[in-house]
Write a structure and sequence with these properties.
This protein has 121 residues and is α+β, with helices and mostly antiparallel strands. The chain is 40% helix and 19% strand.
């Protein structure tokens, strides 16, 4: 039995997920990344190899939002903001990529915030 670090295990899960999903111009991939201090979300068109939009708690903090933290509330804000920007660009359907993270807590909050603001998964 081999022992993996948390990061190695997450990368293995990520690889399994990415074999099955990819983003297109009509239905981009909503990728979530979680660090210790911030949450990041971006819409990616894998066909063109381009990032269409990106939002993070770090960017919201710089934009003047008060106390955007890397918690569930911050995750909802990130989800709502990326959904708002996507709807402005006429993107309504996306594929959610949890990036190897377990679907709960902050990751689920991003998805729920995006759904509330008008994105469909």
């Amino acid at each position: 039995m081999s022992v993996f670090s948390k990061e190695t295990a997450r990368r293995r899960r990520k690889a399994r997920i990415r074999k099955k999903i990819s983003g297109t111009a009509e239905r981009p991939r909503l990728v979530v990344f979680r660090s210790n201090l911030h949450l990041y979300a971006q819409l990616v068109d894998d066909g063109a190899g381009a990032t269409l939009l990106s939002v993070s708690t770090l960017g919201l903090k710089k934009a003047g939002e008060t106390q955007v933290r890397c918690d569930r509330a911050g995750g909802e804000l990130v989800g709502r903001e990326i959904a708002r920007l996507a709807v402005e660009k006429n993107i309504k359907n996306v594929v959610f990529d949890r990036n190897g993270y377990i679907y709960h807590g902050r990751i689920k909050a991003v998805a729920d915030g995006a759904r509330e603001a008008g994105l469909e998964f």
